[in-house]
Design a protein that fits this description.
Main location: mitochondrion
Membrane topology: Single-pass membrane protein
Distance between the termini: 85 Å
Helix content: 40-55%
Keywords: Membrane, Mitochondrion, Mitochondrion inner membrane, Protein transport, Translocation, Transmembrane, Transmembrane helix, Transport
Protein name: Mitochondrial import inner membrane translocase subunit TIM54
Family: Belongs to the TIM54 family.
Shape: flat
Radius of gyration: 35 Å
Length: 460
């Protein structure tokens, strides 16, 4: 008998395994031994887990940084405020980023600042320019309105409930205690331009729509060609004009309407009064302005900047720290005079503009030429239908073409937009420096880090 042919007895099964076999689990599953995944799976799992862990670490650090600065300023919200006093109010100015067509929301650079202001019970007002030049126009108009009210040309634009809340000097002091947050270099350029316009331009009120309408009257695009003999015979027979489009289009529609013979009292705004604001000279110096808090901002737009977008997504804590430190500067209220070197604020951000932004003036001119090229056909159709020279087609009956009056309004709206875009881009283009005037030397201040924060950064 060969002992080698004898098979070894099977290993003794434990009671737990025997019980599991009776549950219906295949016996082959108990004989399998665990092994490592393949190389590709190991690479995938390692990279995925590393990214998830880094993302969680970044967000946790961001939350800790935000909470740290909230704890520093939350005691300010517990301070009592007199019933006739004003809370500290901050103005946040932002402008459209060149090349970003989706600028319909508050910039993401405000997100790290907002929790700190809320924790310190500081009110803030956001002025977001949706097109180039909007912020400059808004700042200039606000300054002119304040100047007119100070000179007594206009009543102060304050609600009746706020008139009793302190004297104008007290409100002025609270305004200076607030400050102005400027997000990005584009907003910085527009803000400085708005300050210059507000203090140097005339205080005379000008209706931009009316001024541009008068300017466009003589360009010849709406001139009516010589009327035909049939049309002259119609005038000789005394046939009334069916629509205002029969009038000479070079004049504003409605001037010779039947209601023009009825004399109605003109509105108060059109009464011939002595406009004393036109004689107000430019001030030799301007009063102290709310201190500035420039906050760097870069909006990554374009396929070439996708790697930087990914980097920013996993390093949100740096933005949170920068925003919290900027808000803490304003809350600490430590200031210094504005210097000429501050004009180079966030100069490196202009290197992230898309190359296509250089063609903005050419794009505006191309759109203008295309519109005026198609305008004669639209105008001829509108006049032919208004004069009854032909019947409207089936398509024109379903969707009536614009009338001459509507074409004039459309042209005015487009010209205002094109010219505003050209002026706005001229302000923020990289080649244009920030405006500066000697009047601002003693009127502008900048928030800086408080001494404690400086010492902490140096010791770290």
């Amino acid at each position: 008998m060969n002992l080698n042919n004898l098979s070894s007895p099977p290993p003794k099964k434990s009671g737990f395994r025997t019980a599991l076999e009776f549950t219906g689990i295949p016996p082959s599953w108990f004989d399998k031994r665990p092994r490592l995944p393949s190389r590709n799976w190991l690479i995938f799992l390692s990279v995925t887990q590393s990214l998830i862990a880094y993302y969680a670490y970044d967000r946790r650090q961001s939350q800790n940084i935000r909470q740290d600065y909230v704890d520093r300023v939350k005691h300010l919200a517990e301070e009592s405020l007199h019933s006739l006093d004003f809370p500290r109010t901050v103005t946040v100015c932002s402008a459209k980023w060149p090349g970003d067509d989706d600028w319909d929301r508050c910039p993401c650079s405000l997100v790290p600042i907002q929790p700190i202001f809320v924790a310190a019970a500081i009110d803030y007002t956001v002025i977001a320019g949706k097109r180039h030049g909007d912020l400059a126009t808004h700042v200039a108009n606000d300054i002119k309105t304040a100047r007119r009210a100070a000179l007594g040309l206009d009543p102060p634009p304050l609600p009746l409930l706020l008139v009793s809340k302190g004297t104008p000097e007290v409100r002025r002091r609270r305004t200076l205690d607030g400050g102005t947050v400027i997000i990005g270099r584009a907003a910085f350029k527009e803000y400085m331009t708005g300050v210059r316009r507000g203090w140097t331009e005339s205080l005379q009120r000008v209706d931009e729509d009316e001024r541009l309408s008068k300017e466009l009257e003589g360009d010849g695009h709406f001139d009516d060609p010589e009327p035909s003999s049939d049309l002259l015979s119609d005038f000789a027979d005394g046939e009334p004009l069916p629509t205002p489009s029969r009038l000479p289009p070079s004049r504003p529609p409605g001037i010779f309407s039947p209601f023009a013979t009825i004399r109605t009292p003109p509105p108060l705004s059109s009464l011939p009064t002595h406009d004393s604001d036109a004689d107000v000279p430019t001030p030799t110096h301007i009063p102290l302005q709310p201190p500035l808090l420039p906050v760097p901002f870069v909006n990554l737009v374009g396929i070439k900047l996708v790697p930087l977008m990914i980097w920013d997504f996993f390093n949100e804590r740096h933005k949170v720290r920068a925003g919290a430190e900027a808000a803490y500067k304003l809350i600490s209220c430590v200031k210094r005079p504005f210097e000429r070197t501050d004009l180079d604020f966030d100069l490196s951000a202009e290197g992230y503009y898309k190359r296509s932004t250089a063609a903005i003036p050419a794009d505006v001119q191309r759109a203008r030429e295309g519109y005026y090229k198609a305008l004669p056909e639209k105008l001829a159709t509108a006049r032919a239908l208004a004069r009854g020279e032909r019947e409207p087609t089936k398509l024109e009956s379903e969707a009536p073409p614009p009338t001459e009056v509507e074409l004039r309004a459309e042209r005015l709206k487009k010209e205002m937009r094109w010219r505003a875009d050209e002026r706005g881009w001229e302000l923020v283009r990289p080649e244009m420096p920030v405006e500066w005037d000697k009047l601002w030397e003693d009127a502008l201040e900048v928030f800086v880090d408080p001494p404690a924060v400086r010492w902490d950064n140096q010791s770290a």
